[in-house]
User: Which sequence fits this backbone?
């Protein structure tokens, strides 16, 4: 069925989270922007709500390793609820949203691929995700951190950068290669608990935006972890191993799109209210020649917000209904990331000194939102994924 | 939360209309554009699909299928993928029939609907646009003044599809109570065809400028009678229908460009292997995904009736204006991707480029 109905339950959840974003996040947003690296303590109430709502990307119960995926039509599942929640939380504050306790990017990977035994051990831990290195970002297949099997343990060596939650997390999911000469299929992910000897947190980055979220360097020096901490297949297979580790992006990319949507919506609403105070209303019934430049901009932004939302919702709907959504997930992130930034940047421009002033949060939102078009695969990387899909090309044809 | 799966009816509409568009519209598309005409056989054949009779209730002689704005946009997109002008011609009778169905009085329904259920194709049309840069559909310059038992129409309309063949024309005019719609018969005195228009594109579709000079229309021809019509809704249904055709044209451009870019070799490699080409294709794919879903959302909103009426204007306005911008951008990409070949009339891209420029200014040429 094609439907855009907002159910009562959904509205209640959105309202609840919106209320918390407004009452808890907004008042402290500026403080944590100015006090980088200080851990927000006010966010505990969210932990309960997120768990109750099945939010984040956590699986609710443990399940067998291979679940049969059924294609359905109208199921509204965890992905749909997550993007609804993410939009509202990002409307409150993107940085604080990323700093919510217990909800790291690593959690998505763990719930996607962990065995029951691993899920038992790590499922409820606050998990960061460490892929990026000084020498590789977009090209995750160039990871050079190594994992060498030594008896019952893997020994990790290498440096990871830009790890969101790297300081505050309890465990970290690390991408490392079993054998650099065997290429991307030798890349596996490993769960490392904080406190393991050989793992140290290096510097914390000083950033343009999302300062409430910590971004850390992690150094692995002969860091030994149990053999059982490898996620997924421990063998190097000639085919498809890398695709497996990439698959968690299909769930997280629409979510990042939703973050951009929430932040852009906040900027749009703020701008609309500011204009209304000046007596400038947005009309939907005037021909082009009668519209002011500002009205045109506002209408364009509003259309962009609507477009972002439906594209993101469709990607989530597909995930909830057992349909492969690699293409749509990238579309959601590409559209969200790009349009979101165009919107917040335009809002700052429109409001002139008010947009630029730190007296309001708008200037901060512009700084905060930029990253939504960068991490989890940059705009250009999403375009590559999309182009390859629609052209039926592999990376050999289009890189 | 939103769900995006077609139901059984919609799947059937999509499949049958897509194959009809591929078999019957696309092959004659270029020829019709060059000749500025549509062969009558095409209209006969299209009539056989029952696009109009299907949605007319049985009590008026139709087939009484489920009519929904959503089903209509799925149909419109599929047809427009074949050819824009021909799809608009195929759906033209609904420009008249849908408003009668939605907003007509019982007497109007009884009088007009059965005449569209015959085997012989019949044209009805809508006259809404006017030849002015400050044209405002909410404030048209054509006037209707009540004089005893008739309205007197004065003004000039443009871009009226198939006005030469239309049995009935629904004319939008301003009254002292706002916009109204008036049913004008083929032979009404005071109505005349000014010219068959020539535009940049939409060449195959016969479009006329039509003048009204003290054209008398009996009061019973005022759509909706005493209570009039919900004109905003009428306009929205048209904008949603047009948006669907924009999606269809955009998809046609993308399909063609993908195929071309994979075949065309420059500097030893297919041009699709270059990011500057591939990223245009990717951008088009993203925007089509967006405008299609938005068109569905607008149509779904219309189908909720009264309950969502306050939302309808906003969403169909945003959908139509945004989709028009994107559809033209995508057609422009198409030409760029084909390079010089994109401007040669052998390639449909050239035709779609001219046609897609129309979208931003069009009102009322489709109805969903
Ligand atoms: C605040 C923040 C938080 C982050 N959190 C995490 C985290 O938790 N875990 C983690 O692992 N990483 C994280 N990252 C890293 C992030 O994912 C990378 O920065 C990102 O993937 C881009 O990599 P890069 O910075 O090395 O840029 P590069 O890969 O060097 O790219 C530079 C530019 O080149 C473009 N480019 C690269 N390759 C191509 C190509 N083939 N075609 C066209 N253009 C190309 C890129 O799009 C970009 O514009 C975070 C980054 C930031 C800023």
Assistant:
């Amino acid at each position: 069925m094609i439907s855009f109905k907002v159910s009562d339950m959904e509205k209640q959840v959105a309202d609840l989270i919106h209320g918390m974003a407004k009452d808890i996040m907004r008042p402290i947003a500026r403080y944590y922007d100015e006090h980088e690296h200080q851990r927000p303590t006010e966010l505990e109430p969210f932990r309960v709500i997120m768990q109750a709502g099945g939010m984040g990307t956590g699986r609710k119960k443990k399940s067998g390793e291979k679940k049969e995926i059924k294609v359905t039509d109208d199921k509204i599942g965890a992905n749909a609820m997550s993007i609804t929640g993410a939009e509202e939380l990002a409307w409150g504050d993107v940085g604080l949203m990323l700093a919510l306790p217990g909800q790291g990017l690593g959690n998505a990977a763990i719930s996607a691929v962990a065995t029951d035994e691993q899920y038992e051990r790590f499922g409820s831990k606050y998990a960061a995700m460490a892929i990026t290195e000084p020498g590789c970002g977009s090209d995750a297949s160039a990871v050079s951190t190594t994992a060498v099997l030594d008896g019952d343990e893997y020994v990790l060596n290498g440096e990871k950068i830009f790890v969101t939650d790297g300081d505050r997390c309890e465990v970290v999911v690390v991408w490392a290669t079993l054998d650099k000469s065997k290429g991307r299929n030798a890349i596996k992910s490993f769960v490392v608990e904080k406190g393991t000897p050989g793992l140290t947190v290096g510097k914390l980055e000083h950033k343009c935006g999302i300062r409430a979220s910590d971004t850390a360097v992690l150094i692995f020096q002969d860091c030994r972890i149990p053999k059982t901490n490898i996620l997924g297949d421990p063998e190097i297979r000639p085919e498809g191993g890398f695709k497996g580790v990439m698959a968690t992006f299909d769930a997280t990319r629409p979510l990042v799109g939703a973050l951009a949507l929430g932040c852009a919506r906040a900027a749009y609403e703020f701008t609309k209210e500011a204009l209304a105070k000046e007596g400038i209303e947005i009309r939907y019934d005037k021909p082009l020649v009668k519209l002011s430049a500002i009205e045109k901009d506002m209408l364009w932004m509003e259309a962009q917000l609507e477009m972002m939302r439906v594209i993101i919702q469709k990607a989530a709907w597909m995930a909830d209904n057992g349909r492969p959504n690699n293409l749509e997930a990238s579309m959601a992130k590409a559209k969200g990331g790009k349009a979101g930034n165009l919107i917040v940047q335009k809002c700052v421009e429109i409001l002139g000194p008010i947009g630029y002033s730190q007296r309001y949060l708008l200037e901060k939102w512009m700084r905060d939102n930029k990253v939504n078009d960068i991490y989890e695969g940059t705009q250009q990387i999403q375009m590559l994924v999309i182009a390859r899909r629609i052209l039926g090309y592999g990376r050999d044809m289009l890189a | 939360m939103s769900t995006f799966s077609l139901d059984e009816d919609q799947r059937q509409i999509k499949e049958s209309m897509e194959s009809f568009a591929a078999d019957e519209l696309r092959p004659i598309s270029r020829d019709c554009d060059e000749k500025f005409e549509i062969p009558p056989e095409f209209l006969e054949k299209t009539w056989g699909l029952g696009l109009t009779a299907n949605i007319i209730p049985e009590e008026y002689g139709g087939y009484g299928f489920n009519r929904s704005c959503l089903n209509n946009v799925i149909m419109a997109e599929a047809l427009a993928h074949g050819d824009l002008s021909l799809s608009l011609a195929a759906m033209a009778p609904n420009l008249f029939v849908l408003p009668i169905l939605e907003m007509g009085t019982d007497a109007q329904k009884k009088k007009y609907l059965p005449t569209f259920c015959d085997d012989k194709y019949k044209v009805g049309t809508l006259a809404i646009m006017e030849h002015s840069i400050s044209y405002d559909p909410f404030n048209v310059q054509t006037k209707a003044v009540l004089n005893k038992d008739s309205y007197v129409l004065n003004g000039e309309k443009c871009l009226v599809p198939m006005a030469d063949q239309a049995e009935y024309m629904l004319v939008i005019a301003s009254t002292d109570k706002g916009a109204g719609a008036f049913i004008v018969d083929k032979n009404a005195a005071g109505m005349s065809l000014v010219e068959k228009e020539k535009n940049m594109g939409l060449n195959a579709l016969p479009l006329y400028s039509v003048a009204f000079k003290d054209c008398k229309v009996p009061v019973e021809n005022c759509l909706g009678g005493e209570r009039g019509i919900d004109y905003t809704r009428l306009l929205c249904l048209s904008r949603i229908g047009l948006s669907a055709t924009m999606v269809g044209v955009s998809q046609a451009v993308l399909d063609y460009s993908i195929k071309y870019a994979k075949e065309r070799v420059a500097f030893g490699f297919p041009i699709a292997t270059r990011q500057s080409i591939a990223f245009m294709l990717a951008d088009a794919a993203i925007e089509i995904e967006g405008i299609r879903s938005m068109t569905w959302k607008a149509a779904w909103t219309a189908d909720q009736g009264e309950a969502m009426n306050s939302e309808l204007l906003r969403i169909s306005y945003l959908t139509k204006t945004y989709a028009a911008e994107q559809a033209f951008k995508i057609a422009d990409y198409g030409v760029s991707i084909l390079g010089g070949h994109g401007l040669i009339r052998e390639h449909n891209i050239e035709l779609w480029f001219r046609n897609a420029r129309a979208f931003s200014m069009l009102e009322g040429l489709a109805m969903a």
About this structure: The pocket of flavin-adenine dinucleotide is lined by residues A 105, 129-132, 137-138, 162-164, 207, 210, 215, 371, 374-375, 378, 380-381, 384, 399; B 275 (CB under 6 Å). The first strand of chain B starts at residue 3 and ends at 4. The domain at 231-361 of chain B is CATH 1.20.140.10 (Butyryl-CoA Dehydrogenase, subunit A; domain 3).
